[in-house]
Design goal:
This protein is 48% helix and 11% strand. The protein has 19 helices and twelve strands. By secondary structure, it is mainly α.
Length: 464
């Protein structure tokens, strides 16, 4: 059987990080088995579904690197098909027309509450013949079993049992002829050939109601996998109070997509003790059995650590391209050709210990800032009369250097020794002159990246 998974978001808001993880799990499961990963936009709520939100979902998935097969499907476009299935069930006697008004249903529930009995509505129209139907608006309800139990097997939760007397005769079609969400989801999943439904465990109760439709239509049922929600560090459902919750917010914060994929994959799923892994390994290893039953806690420090490891091993050209995309996403000026060239040549030292793109840019300040370099408050204190004199003495020695690391280290070390200084003591003024800050890449890395002429010019600026 060819695996087909789907991600079916409602475009009523930006792509939540929990939804992004659900999409990722579906993508990994399908891609790891040579299957299809489909995208369906559940846009039947016209009042809340907007084109901007739809695009935000697509942009979030694209940034995360999750490609889907074919064009995104629109649930609203299948309205006629949803109604067709409802009327097929009606014709087969597995559904019925209910003429109970909303006032009558509310009156029943008020009475039930007063008598402390079940408020589950039992329609009086379930077994009324067509000949006795009034000429009035109606909804179409499915005939749910009234006794016994239903057990569904879930690849994450195991066997889950529901008492049938807790199932109502669910509405399939509203009085205006539109399908409810429960019907639309099942019809779309069936028609799209979905074999595995991987979604949040807040949908677990829905599975029993949707099962009624599969049973009534005699359709093959997909494998179910309901994954626990994501909690914040405090053990409560992840929300704005914990920080960023939208996928594009994480892009704007400068986390690399590969690091996000790795971290989100590991959030609620495990493969032994492996924490850091490539996309290829994730696709190879990911399975439903590795998903835990308990909610996963979002840990920002762990996310940063994983992202830092991915930046460190990333291909330089790919990292540069993602850095450019980060600048665009955050409304910052694009890199000039000269800046891009400098960053590419310095990438080997910029990637070390940078966990996000803002940190990488900060380390690249010595490339991005043009002369004259204005030292920040801390590094300015390092440019004393004595240190300026040493820099002035060092400059002509660099004029004739071979401009290799060994040569530069030798010249700087001998200059420090001549002044009875440790090498580290001279590093501070050199950093201030070359980068304008006390914290930067190694002074020798900066010299090699900047080149002879720019290095000497900056030293001359600082020593005058």
């Amino acid at each position: 059987m060819s695996v087909v998974t789907r991600f079916a978001p409602s475009p009523t808001g930006a792509l939540h990080i929990g939804g992004a993880r659900t999409a990722l799990f579906n993508w990994l499961y399908a891609r790891g088995r040579g299957g299809k990963f489909l995208l369906r936009i559940e846009d039947t709520d016209k009042a809340r579904s907007t084109e901007a939100n739809r695009q935000a979902i697509l942009d979030g998935l694209t940034w995360l690197g999750l490609d889907w097969d074919g064009a995104p499907a629109s649930q609203a476009a299948n309205a006629a098909r949803h109604a067709e299935v409802a009327y097929e069930l009606l014709a087969a006697g597995k559904a019925y027309k209910c003429f109970s008004t909303s006032d009558e249903i509310e009156a029943f529930r008020e009475k039930a509450r007063a008598e402390k009995t079940s408020t589950l509505f039992r329609s009086p129209w379930r077994d009324v013949s067509e000949a006795s139907h009034p000429n009035a608006p109606f909804v179409v309800r499915i005939k749910a079993p009234r006794d016994g139990q239903t057990t569904l097997h879930d690849a994450v939760q195991g066997d889950v049992t529901w008492s049938n007397d807790q199932l109502d005769d669910m509405i399939l079609l509203r009085s205006d002829g539109s399908a409810v969400y429960m019907l639309a989801v099942v019809v779309d999943d069936h028609d799209m050939g979905v074999t595995h439904v991987i979604r949040g465990d807040d949908h677990l109760a829905n599975a029993f109601r949707q099962n009624l439709i599969y049973e009534a239509m005699g359709w093959d049922k997909p494998t179910l996998a309901h994954i626990p929600l994501i909690f914040g560090p405090d053990g409560k459902k992840l929300s704005k109070r914990h920080g960023a919750t939208g996928a594009q917010e994480y892009q704007a914060l400068g986390y690399p997509a590969a690091g996000m994929r790795n971290y989100l994959t590991r959030l609620g799923w495990s493969h032994g003790d492996d924490e850091f892994f490539s996309d290829a390994k994730a696709r190879e290893w990911f399975d439903l059995g590795g998903i835990g039953k308990s909610p996963a806690r979002f840990d920002f420090k762990k996310l940063e650590n994983i992202c830092g490891q991915h930046i460190a091993v990333a291909d330089d050209a790919a990292l540069h391209q993602e850095l450019q995309a980060f600048l665009v996403a955050t409304g910052q000026p694009a890199l000039t050709d000269a800046q891009s060239e400098g960053i590419m040549s310095a990438m080997y030292c910029l990637k070390e210990r940078a966990k996000t793109f803002p940190e990488l840019i900060d380390k690249a300040a010595f490339i991005l800032n043009a002369r004259p370099i204005v030292p920040d408050e801390k590094s300015a204190t390092l440019l004393t009369d004595v240190s300026r004199g040493i820099l002035k003495e060092l400059t002509p020695q660099l004029q004739n250097a071979s401009w290799s690391r060994d040569s530069l280290e030798g010249i700087v070390a001998s200059t420090a020794e001549a002044h009875d200084m440790k090498l580290g003591k001279l590093a501070g003024p050199l950093r201030a002159a070359l980068a304008g800050r006390a914290v930067s890449p190694s002074m020798f890395d900066m010299m090699l990246v900047l080149g002879r002429d720019e290095t000497i010019a900056r030293l001359q600026d600082a020593s005058t």
